[in-house]
Amino acid sequence: MIKAYRHLTEKDRIFLRIMLEKNYPKNKIANILGVNRSTIYREIKRNGFVHWHSKKQIYWNDVAHKKYLERRKKGTKLSKDNELRDYVHLKLKSGWSPWQIEGRLKRENNNECVISHETIYRYIYNDAAIRNQVYKKLRRKHFWRIKHNSRKPRVPKELLINNRPEIINTREEFGHWEGDLMMFKQGIKGNLITLRERKSRYIIAIKNLNKTATGTALTLISSVKKIKKHIKSITFDQGSEFNKYQWIKECFATDIYFCKPASPYQKGAVENGNGVIRAELPRDYNIELLKHKHIAELIDEINNRPLRCLGYLSPNEQFQTYLYDDG
Description:
Elements: H1 10-21, H2 26-33, H3 37-47, E1 49-50, E2 57-58, H4 61-73, H5 77-80, H6 82-93, H7 98-108, H8 117-125, H9 128-134, H10 166-169, E3 176-183, E4 191-197, E5 203-208, H11 213-223, E6 233-236, H12 245-252, E7 255-258, H13 268-280, H14 292-303, H15 315-326
Helix pairs in contact: 1-4, 2-3, 3-4, 7-8, 11-12
């Protein structure tokens, strides 16, 4: 498939430098960045430089991006019109969005577009110094530019919860779980991965060192592999920490489903379980100070509390019964 031409971003150039240092082939770099390979060759030729001593071609992302911006600045509307540039800066710092700036100027100039919101966004995100000054004033405060409607869905449509079999929804079958990540004190990377089996209400909590998708998947896989044959499905939310769901799916030979965005109520079992854990481990708790055995003791105590929905059996008693029947 021929890839459409596009300009490399500042973030692209960081990744390009890293991949060049690791001696990735140019074709592979182009595929990873989603551009034609000619874009990579052209970028290195235009924005790289020859080292004065080694005489080798060198590519540094910060130098490359600076060269790119210097070329882009020549003849741009905001670089030529000081009055317009000052107006845009003033309004951005006052909390106006690029859309509001475009609309107000159009209203004040007989419905003629003086400058478009897209031009303003490019002006902000093509210059790191300008971006650092004003991006926190923007509504969504993105450090990197994400164009409207350009964000790709995190998960395929066929994995959404509305495609989950009814036997899971009705809790008729043992072995269907819900998963979540519990965050704690601000600035602390440690967290808890929580799993809850829908029928028995049995909870598992695993100390996790960080929120990365790779770390979360590996921690989950290594911690519950002993009962993987009893994991028929897991339902997650669409947080980025579960982006490596394919690893979990393959290692457990299980089905994976996802709630709709911003719909945590669709995995109410684990959310309810998190609430019980929160009573013992509040959000301002430093989870990194808690040892694995203490977490296990706490969760075991919770799993041994009788529940009305189980006829006042405990989740642990119910879980052991299903485990025996399933095994």
